[in-house]
Amino acid sequence: MRDSEFDFIRTLVYEHSRIHLGPDKRELVAARLGKRLRATQLTSIGEYCDLLKNRSDGQELAHLIDAISTNHTFFFRETPHFDFLRAHVMPEMIQRHRTERWPRFYAWSAACSTGEEPYSLAITLTECLQNTGWGWQIEATDISHRVLEKAGAAIYREDVVNRLPPACIKTYFQKGVGPQAGNYRVKPALRDHVSYHHLNLLEGEPPFREPFQLIFCRNVMIYFDRATQEELVNKLARRLVPGGYLLVGHSESLTGIRHSLQLVRPAIYRRPPVS
Ligand SMILES: C[S@@+](CC[C@H](N)C(=O)[O-])C[C@H]1O[C@@H](n2cnc3c(N)ncnc32)[C@H](O)[C@@H]1O
């Protein structure tokens, strides 16, 4: 890939997703563009750059962002977060609900990828909120249309699901038969609590108004530069109820970022409660 082509691609990706592609990502970008060349039947990255310049409908740009973004995720990733939810966040929120009478417990999985994160959260909320009579809802968003489609379908390969405890699989997943043999699907009782939306976290406002008791924004900030991380953290903080929690990936320290949140423990932040 020529320098000018790499610069064109990285600028375009930055402008539309804020994903920062440093010089060390050149090989990765070239490899991922290979897929788009095959899909568009073009033979060089130069021709592909021309296609991006000439297509005004943004369709190829969406495919480019899909191809460049890293979607790696798995069920109950970073288990200390789920342990903390069960042990601290949920008992505290249930207690507060008794006086504040929130209509629902609202959580947001920002950058939800293929759905493993919001469904892990849904399992945790089901178990923590049963017998409380308190309704709950998870909003899940991502910039990639491809991952959102997979998340909404909620179908996962057996080898992915089999890493969960058997009792969890039995309760929350349906085993596929016929053409779906070898797959599992998340049961409707969980799926009905999760809504998916396309959203670039750095562009405009999310399509929901309610403040959240809990926001997961994990393993996406590593792809942004410091200024973008700061903008995003402050944007998310404004969407939390006072005393609400923001969970970030364990490799994503907010050190050096100006924000109003309190550090509770590594990768767990909280909007200060009203005193
Ligand atoms: C590595 S995955 C993390 C998934 C999940 N949160 C986890 O921790 O397992 C990062 C996700 O961030 C999404 N993403 C990247 N840039 C984004 C942006 N500007 N707005 C929204 N989502 C973005 C990607 O499409 C990808 O699905």
Mean pLDDT: 95
Structural class: alpha/beta
Q: List the domain count as a whole number.
A: 2
N to C succession of SSEs: HHHHHEHEHEHHEEHEEHEEE
CATH topology of the largest domain: Rossmann fold
Reported CATH architecture of the largest domain:
3-Layer(aba) Sandwich
The set of bound ligands, ions and cofactors reads:
S-adenosylmethionine
The CATH class name of the largest domain reads Alpha Beta
How are the SSEs placed, and which strands pair?
Blueprint: H1 3-17, H2 26-40, H3 45-54, H4 59-68, H5 79-100, E1 104-110, H6 116-129, E2 135-142, H7 145-153, E3 155-157, H8 158-161, H9 166-172, E4 173-175, E5 183-186, H10 188-191, E6 194-198, E7 212-217, H11 226-238, E8 240-248, E9 262-265, E10 268-270
The protein binds S-adenosylmethionine.
Report on the architecture of this protein.
This protein has 275 residues and is of the alpha/beta class. The chain folds into two domains: 3-68, Chemotaxis receptor methyltransferase CheR, N-terminal domain (Chemotaxis Receptor Methyltransferase Cher, domain 1, Orthogonal Bundle), CATH 1.10.155.10; 79-270, Rossmann fold (3-Layer(aba) Sandwich). Helices cover 45% and strands 19% of the residues. It is built from eleven helices and ten strands. The strands form two sheets. The protein has a seven-stranded mixed beta sheet with strand order 6-2-1-7-8-10-9. Strands 3-5-4 form a three-stranded antiparallel beta sheet. β1, α6 (116-129) and β2 form a beta-alpha-beta unit. It is globular, with a radius of gyration of 20 Å. The site of S-adenosylmethionine has 25 residues, from loops.
